């Protein structure tokens, strides 16, 4: 388990979770995707509805497997192939 900046990680993980605003998710998209092991899961939350399409597009190299909405907030679950 690792808790901290994705940019300082030293290995990959089966599950990576990021609960931060859309602009930061987009800015860290490359690092977040690289942090996920093959066949691992990436869970992104804290995404306002007006930004969800932009975040989905930025992570389109991964497979979107779940999309949850609660009020104006989204959580996206991706799988790395």
Question: What's the short story on this structure?
Answer:
The chain has three helices and four strands. It is of the alpha+beta class and 81 residues long.
Word description of this protein:
The chain is 23% helix and 43% strand. It is an alpha+beta fold and 81 residues long. It has a single domain, classed as Rossmann fold, CATH 3.40.50. It has a four-stranded mixed beta sheet. It is built from three helices and four strands; from the N terminus they run βααβαββ. A hairpin with a 2-residue loop joins strand 3 and strand 4 (73-79). The protein has helices spanning 22-27, 29-34, 52-58; strands at residues 13-19, 36-48, 63-70, 73-79.
Task: Give me the secondary-structure topology.
Blueprint: E1 13-19, H1 22-27, H2 29-34, E2 36-48, H3 52-58, E3 63-70, E4 73-79
Parallel strand pairs: 1-2
Antiparallel strand pairs: 2-4, 3-4
